[in-house]
Predict the 3D structure of the following.
Amino acid sequence: MLTDRQLEIVKATVPALQAHGAAITRVFYTSLFEAHPELLNIFNPVNQASGRQADTLAVSILAYAAHIDRLEQLGGMVGQIAHKHVSLEVLPEHYPIVGQHLLSAIAAVLGDAATPEILEAWGAAYGQLADIMIGVEGSMKRAGAEQPGGWAGFKPFVVTGKTTESQVITSFELTPQDGQPLPPFQPGQYLSLQVQVPGRPTRQIRQYSLTALPNGQTYRISVKRERAASAELPHGLISTHLHEELNMGDQVLVHLPAGEFVLQDSNRPVVLLSGGVGITPMISLLDHLVAKNPTRPVLFVHAALNREVHAFHDHVNAVTAAHSQVQKQIYYTEVGIHDQLGVDYDIAGLIRRNTISPLLPEGDAEYYYCGPAGFTHAVESLLDDLKVPTDRRFTETFGPSRTFTLLAADRAPAQAHELAATGR
Ligand SMILES: NC(=O)C1=CN([C@@H]2O[C@H](COP(=O)(O)OP(=O)(O)OC[C@H]3O[C@@H](n4cnc5c(N)ncnc54)[C@H](O)[C@@H]3O)[C@@H](O)[C@H]2O)C=CC1
């Protein structure tokens, strides 16, 4: 428990961390991985090299410090991080290691400004956050392992299907090697795979959206083959390995499904907006909606470069044709010479208010969106224009989230119960 003085100190140091937060976390990761190279396996090296992981930690720490006297408002952030941590097998014993390196990094970057009293206050604050996270993650792990068909950690699965969805996206059907029935999951969630690429020192863990509904026997994920941006940024190492080397009959290690990008329990109309590979979680959401809520209007909007990279084209057409509750609108930005307007796509160009507006369902629709950063920003300004309140917007970020700054009071009330329930 922090003293009042420590609470004051932590809040007062937010501006200093704001100024130096990214530098602190960069120093932190460097010293952490020097001392504990084994922890590299749970971090995507691309996110390390690009600084994205460091930025995410900095944003999370700042959000935490800013809310230190109103922790119930951090429920959304805690839930998102806990899902990621559980699926990455972050363990309670990792927290003191991280705490030690974080405090040393704060001391190193802030220099004399980091007095013993400040460091002690941050030590206490970090300890409190660690206790919250360990509590939430522990209950999630227990619930996962104890459910029928559940398991702890990673379990061997076999590839029983491999389907090309587009020039860049491939689906893998995975069946548990032990033949046990599989627990259900919520549409919109993802699976973690642990993969050993030959020649690399550690196994790597990656998350991929589930793209078929729960059936008790198999899971299906869909993976975009990422391209290397440069030799220093080994982007696409795992996805290329999966596309090229993971074949029928091969084994892969799989963690229980996780993730909080799931449908709200409501009957509101739904707008699903995806860009590129952001279509993957939308496929499960769409399939679930038509199977379970036949009266709920759904608008499916997808933006792709062109037909060659447009995954699930036929599937979405078939669902739209079979269910009058669904309307769709497809945007292509780099229309191919064989692409047909009205057949393959509806609009050439980027998603825009005047083109989407005529199709928007009446009433207080919920908006679910996922896509590359530019797409996400475009959708967010569209939703701002349409005055859609934040409690009807839901998004998924692949990789470390940059959205924690959005968490605050207006996004978190429902999830605050989660935090309260952990008895922090
Ligand atoms: N939520 C997330 O974190 C997601 C991240 N990504 C990342 O983004 C990268 C690119 O994904 P791809 O599937 O190759 O997408 P892409 O580059 O093929 O773009 C798909 C579509 O998104 C739209 N879009 C892109 N930039 C836009 C902008 N500035 N304004 C408005 N619309 C825009 C365009 O309509 C484009 O056709 C991936 O490598 C992936 O790592 C992709 C999807 C989801």
